[in-house]
Amino acid sequence: MAYILLGAAFMFAGLVFMAGAAIWRGQLSGPGSSRSRLPTDTLEPAQRGVRFLGLQVNWPGIALFVLGAILLLIGAFD
């Protein structure tokens, strides 16, 4: 039972870490956030990119998620 609870906690922590890395990556609007000639009074930048989905930023969250999955599997067969 302890493996299952610990695995669920690790998976949740990894998911929160990855979501936080995507959300808190940078400002959505403001000076320097958009590189196009669109009006600057918008909340969303013209191009955000998908770099926030990369392995370089999310590897701690992915590691926590995988560790949690392994602990859940160990708890299921224990």
From TrEMBL:
The chain crosses the membrane at residues 59-77. The keyword Transmembrane helix applies. Keywords: Membrane, Transmembrane, Transmembrane helix. This is Uncharacterized protein.
